[in-house]
Amino acid sequence: MNIYLFVSGGSKTNAILKGLSSEIEDIENLYNHRKIKTKVVGKISWSPVPGIHFFDIPAEAYEPYMQVIRIRLKNKLKLYRGKGGLFE
């Protein structure tokens, strides 16, 4: 299954995705068809709360108006709908 992430082209920042419980197979920038690496931050092994995915989009890969990032999932889309954080 694929999902698409749209990132404003002029922002020149990394993309962030929260609440995705599905496992990612690969990520591709559709502007230049290059693979994008992701780093998961804040995931605790014993917690059901997913971490935050940070996507590092290289400066030479930025399209001036809008980045379209294709995220291929290993299985169907599963979003975390609970509460997260230390103080609930």
Helical content, roughly? under 10%
Distance between the termini: 32 Å
The value of Rg in angstroms is 14 Å
Strand percentage lies at: 35-45%
Overview of the molecule:
The protein has strands at residues 2-8, 15-17, 24-29, 34-35, 38-41, 52-55, 66-73. It has a single domain, classed as Golgi alpha-mannosidase II (Immunoglobulin-like, Sandwich). Strands 1-7-3-4 form a 4-stranded antiparallel sheet, with no helix packed on it. β3 and β4 form a beta hairpin. It is mainly beta and 88 residues long. It is 0% helix and 39% strand. It has no helices and 7 strands. The model has no long low-confidence stretch (mean pLDDT 85).
List the helices and strands and how they pair.
Layout (H helix, E strand, L loop, with lengths): L1 E7 L6 E3 L6 E6 L4 E2 L2 E4 L10 E4 L10 E8 L15
Question: Which keywords apply here?
Answer:
88 residues; mainly beta; Immunoglobulin-like; four-stranded antiparallel β-sheet; three-stranded antiparallel β-sheet; globular
Can you summarize this structure?
By secondary structure, the protein is mainly β. Helix content is 0%, strand content 39%.
